[in-house]
Amino acid sequence: xxxxxxxxxxxxxxxxxxxxxELPPPVHTxxxxxxLHPSLEDPALNSMNFLxxxxxxxxxxxxxxxGRPFEEFWDLDELPRYLARFSEYxxxxxxxxxxxxxxxxxxxxxxxxxxxxxxxxxxELDEGVSVDPESIVVTVGCQEAMVLVLRALRSGPKDxxxxxxxxxxxxxxxxxxxxxxxxxxxSGAAGVDLDDLLTQIQRARTxxxxxxxCYVMPDFANPSGVSMPETTRRALLSLARExxxxxxxxxPYGLFHGDTRRVPTLKALDAGRxxxxxxxxxxxVLPGARVGYVVADQTVTASDGTVGLFAxxxxxxxxxxxxxxxxxxxxxxxxKLLEHGCSLVAxxxxxxxxxxxxxxxxxxxxxxxxxxxxxVSWNVPAGGFxxxxxxxxxxxDELLTRSARDYGVLWTPMYHFYDTGADGGDGVRxxxxxxxxxxxxxxxxxxxxxxxxxxxxxxRKQGAPVALTRAGDLS
Length: 475
Fold this sequence. Notes:
alpha/beta; 7-stranded mixed beta sheet; 15 helices
């Protein structure tokens, strides 16, 4: 029977199953990414926004993802007190008139910052680092410090940066913005594989490239949680001197160690000004203030033969980027430093105890849920915010979305920290858990939900039926 002779009732389902799709007319847009900076289509620049958006879409999910500091000890009454303490410091210790105090807090300010002397005192007390306050540039978070340093070091297309992999995604993104390629260096058990670092440097130079520096996070690195022993730090400094490159040391987590002795920072061991030190008060004081800094005490010879500080060169770039770091934000940070004699060791004692207890609970909770013989493994960091879990299947953004939607738990796919491109999740089989913003009950619930996800995923890979439970039905 031909279609023409079929009853209309028989035709209806055929038409419904095979509708005619009309292509939408071309959409006129004002701009094309082809005519914008190439980094805007780079996966590295999407990572932070994606992870934030997932958390916003699933606010009821237990978040073991965010590397944010603990919030329960914050008190709104502290902010005006810190501001008043810093104003008092300007009047009584710096000899400022009332008019000058007001101008310092209300007006545009010094590009290199107004709390540089307090930052220098903090470094002396907490890190054993003695630097001229003029070598410090106070920045809008540590992220700006990274951009300033990379922008200054990138003098031409042959300049490249090395970075221990996995690498903090903010560094990778900053490098993209200034068109500076990042060459990955293996981490290894000691936090950096020195043989691989030398190999990458030699290979780059053979290719006609110029390695300018190597980015490292020696203390409880984000995302790996790995720390460098002192012997490795000293060997790294020796290699930097021998091969003539800078070390960009990022240290947001150094104060949050466990019971182990603190290892000196690279900058504290640096006798040859090989280390550009990147600091932040986001974890130790207040992330909302967005105050970071860079110690750039390297000397720079100008074309006219004059010699200055690398910090002065960075301040030129900053003056065209953010003009100055907001004075009120600096004043709040400065006030807290002053309240604690410029040392944050005692000021962060409660937070340090919380992070240590939470790390222990996560590690012990993983052991309870994935016992001997399990195909799931994890590291045991001595401090910081993060624990890395390795599983026998790829971990990508689709799995994270499913975890948040169907299981009610958030974590961070580790592939975001590898420079692997848009499909990097295919080969990275690990995820990062953060211990910093959760309590014991949330950790237990989050790990229960993570265990269900992992076990269901293992069953799915093996072809076994999975009884899916929606997040709203989970305990």
